[in-house]
Amino acid sequence: MIPLIPYALIASVLCIKNACLLRASVPLESPRVQNFQRKLLKRDFEPDKFSKPRGSLSRYTMKEVLSAYEHSAKVLSCPISTYECGNTDPGSDFKVKSLGMCAVVASGRQILNYQYGLEIDSFDTVVRIGYGPVQRFKKYVGARTDVIFVRSTMDSIRSMNAKRTIISDYTNLPFSSGDHLPTKFFLTLPASCQLSDFKGKSILKLKLLSHLECNRVSDCGHSENRFKLWYSNFAPQDSFSNATEAFLRPLKGFRRESKVNSKKYDKIMFTHGFELILALLYSKLCTSITTYGFSKYPSYHYFDKGHSGRRVRPGHVMGMEYYILEILQKNGHPIVLKAYQ
Question: Do 282 and 73 touch, CB atoms closer than 8 A?
Fold first, then answer.
């Protein structure tokens, strides 16, 4: 039986209840989008806001964030379960820099303000988050998918059904081979039981810095034996907690909580998109990372119809995450931020 691996501060949205090329930006008319309703929150709300530090506070904060990034690198050693990190699946043999120049395509609605589709498809590797529609929006989000990060619902995770978790993304949108079948591999949560592959593509896992339930390792039987060595190298729980707090400590004072926040939502947690970017940076699988649609401000998804669904879960502070990435970019880390406003 695989033991429970230490994990970090607090559950993400998945785990609450059940649930570099430059081009001029050209505002465009958004295409028809489908109605997208989540089960977790039934109404929209004013999200948390973040004000950037100024003057001497900015210099101090930058120093603290860079220190936190270096500290977290030790905790997120081998953040992706590749062959070199202990995965015994030969299909996981992706070495440092093997993904080349990576485009990470998030689902912020701001991406519809830019016609970046062809630019995104020109990268060596296109990484997507979740099962949002792709081909219908290819002018904006590109058409290729090489790696896709699937955030299974807690219902599917608790069922421990390895055949179900890879097709159960928390958006409740269906898997489509035309939109979502990656040319390289799937990325999933440590808490989800997984087969060795899906439709011929290997399934790898991703360590999360600031989440609780999603980093829990279940006893998934023989199908998960390939991950045992990778699991055994997880840092202790306190290390995850301390690394997360090192990022948050100098930034908390610049957050203004929304009225919707309650004790349930008063803690700050990172989005899965931010966690994915950190993992790609630490893994060094990409020679560079360019993000698209990773919003500077809380927004709806590009595939939401009108203003349905939610802009962002309470506790996520998009401006804070963007500020951290901005600091990394300004200090020589291989990341470029695009289509964010």
Answer: yes
Residue labelled with tokens 């699937």: 150
Look over the chain and give the mean of its residue pLDDT values, rounded to a whole number.
81
- Spatial separation of the C-alpha atoms in residues 67 and 61, rounded to whole Å: 10
Q: What is the DSSP string of 239-308?
A: HHHHHHHHHHTTTGGGEE--TT--GGG-S----HHHHHHHHHHHHT-EEEEEEES--SS---BTTS-TT-
Extended strands (E) in 82-211? 100-105, 125-129, 147-149, 185-188, 197-198, 201-205
Domain boundaries, the chain: 13-19+32-338
AA identity, residue 27? P
CB 14 within 8 A of CB 40: no
pLDDT (0 to 100) of residue 43: 57
pLDDT digits (tens, 9 = 90+) for 173-188: 889 999 999 999 999 9
CB 186 within 8 A of CB 244: no
DSSP lists the bridge partners of residue 336 as 290
Q: Which distant-in-sequence residues (6+ apart) come within 8 Å of 114 by Cβ? A: 23, 25, 26, 28, 140, 292, 338, 339
Contacts of 216 (CB under 8 A, 6+ apart): 4, 5, 7, 190, 191
Q: In 3-state terms, what secondary structure has residue 47?
A: coil
Rounded to whole angstroms, the Cα distance separating 260 from 282 reads 34
The pair of three-digit structure tokens given for residue 267, joined into one six-digit string: 């803690």
∠280-329-113 over CA atoms, to 5°?
85
How far apart, in whole angstroms, are the C-alpha atoms of residue 177 and residue 131?
10
Helix (H) or strand (E) holding 50: strand 49-50
Topology, domain 13-19+32-338: sialyltransferase cstii, chain A (3.90.1480)
Over residues 50-72, mean pLDDT: 92
Kindly state the tokens that stand for 282: 């630490």
pLDDT of the residue at 266: 67
Contacts of 248 (CB under 8 A, 6+ apart): 268
Q: How far apart are CA 314 and CA 45, in angstroms?
A: 9
